[in-house]
Write the C-alpha cells for this entry.
Amino acid sequence: MKFIGLLCGTRAANNEEYRKVLKRRNIWMAAVALLGVMIAVAAFIAAKNESVQLPEYILGVYCGFGTGLCLGCIILIVKNLLMMGNEEKLKQGRLENSDERVAEIRNRACGVAIGVTLLLCMAAGLILGIYEQVLIKAVLFLLDVFIFSYLIACAYYKNKI
C-alpha cells in the first residue's frame, strides 16, 4: 500500500475538482516554504549578530529545520505541478486520495499517533520537570491546548455535521 499523507485526503469527484484541490495545496505549500525561508534567514542573522546568545547547535537546528521545510515544500509543489500536467497521474492521485479504506486507515493511524504522542509528552514533562520546572509547565500547557482545541473542534463539528 502506498503511504498517503496525513492531510492529503480529498473528496474530489473528478479531475477538475482534484486539480483545484492541488492548486490550494500548492498555495499552502508555498506559504510553508516561505515560513521555512524566514526561519532559516532568522537563524543565519542570529548567527551573524553578536548580541544574540544562542548556542551554535540551536542555530544549526533552526537553520536546518527552515531549510528542510522549504525544500520539502518545493519538492511537493513540483510533484503537484507535474501531476496536474498529466491527466492519467491526476486521475490516479485522485483515486488514491479519495479511497475510503485509505481514509479509515489514516484516521485510525492518526488516533494512535496522537495517543502515543500525548503519552510521551506527559511522561517527558513529568520526568524532565524534576530537573527543570519550566519544562513541566510548557508540556502541561501544550497538553491543555490540545485538550481545549479538541473539545472546541468536537463541538464545532457536532453542530456542523
Notes: Residues 99-161 form one domain. The first helix runs from residue 15 to 48. The chain has a mean pLDDT of 87.
